[in-house]
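Please fill in the sequence for the structure shown.

STRUCTURE ENCODING:
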């Protein structure tokens, strides 16, 4: 009888801790910012099966100005491969996004140069402290699709 419940107690304890912590694992609301450099993971392909068969993906980088009152300036959008080599600079000069405006950049399905560890580095700024934009990639293939959120590297003061 004791063996039967040996596994149940740790599972119950973990469940209780998760209930007590509740929103402790939820994403915290970001503070206001006048600019940031953001790392956004991207995957031009992923591997499946024991033989690591590549599944190729179309990557869409989405930049969304979440501030309802102020615009932002997107200073740079750079795409790097798995080894950290710059593959493409998407912006010849900064562009402006109005409040709640979005923009996207696409890495085509047949562009395999990025690899499984590709990423974007996006820099933005604003004249006013604002709600930071959301930056995420959406990867879509014939067998799977998923998203990945950006991570702030260098907040501006």
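FILLED IN BY: designer on duty
SEQUENCE:
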């Amino acid at each position: 009888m004791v063996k039967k419940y040996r596994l149940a107690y740790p599972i119950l304890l973990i469940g209780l801790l998760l209930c007590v912590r509740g929103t402790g694992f939820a994403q915290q609301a970001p503070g206001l910012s006048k600019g940031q450099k953001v790392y956004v993971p991207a995957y031009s392909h992923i591997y499946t099966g024991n033989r690591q068969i590549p599944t190729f993906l179309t990557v869409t980088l989405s930049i969304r100005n979440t501030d309802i009152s102020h615009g932002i300036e997107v200073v740079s959008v750079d795409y790097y491969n798995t080894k950290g080599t710059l593959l493409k600079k998407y912006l010849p000069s900064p562009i402006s996004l109005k409040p709640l405006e979005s923009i996207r950049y696409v890495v085509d399905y047949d562009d395999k140069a990025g690899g499984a560890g590709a990423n974007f580095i996006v820099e933005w700024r604003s004249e006013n402290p604002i709600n930071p934009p959301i930056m995420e990639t959406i990867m879509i293939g014939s067998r799977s699709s998923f998203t990945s959120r950006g991570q702030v590297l260098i907040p501006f003061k």
